[in-house]
Amino acid sequence: MDIEAFRKAGYQAIDRICDYYATMQDRPVVSQVQPGYLLETLPESAPEHGEKFEEIADDFQKLILPGITHWQHPNFYAYFPTANSFEGLLGDLYSSSVANPTFSWLASPACTELEQVVMDWSAKLFGLGDRFLCKSKVGGGVIQTTASEGAVVVCVAARARYMKMNPSAKLEDLVIYTTTQTHSLGTKAGLILGLDVRALEVKAEDEYALRGSTLKEVLEADLARGKRPFVVLATVGTTSSGAIDELEEIGEVLRDHPSIWYHVDSAWAGVAFACPEFRSVGKLDAINKYADSFCTNFHKWGLVNFDASALWVTDRTYLTDALDVTPEFLRTKQHDAGLVVDYRNWHLGLGRRFRSLKVWFVLRSYGVEGFQKHIRKGIEANKHFVALVKKSPEFELVTTPILALTVFRLALPTSAADGGLPAVNDLNRKLYARLMEHSDKLYLTQTMLNDVFCLRFAIGAQRTEVAHIDQAWKLVKANGQAVLQELERN
Ligand SMILES: *Cc1c(COP(=O)(O)O)cnc(C)c1O
Question: Which of 168, 278, 373, 462 is the most exposed place for a label (fewest CB within 10 A)?
Answer without folding.
Answer: 168
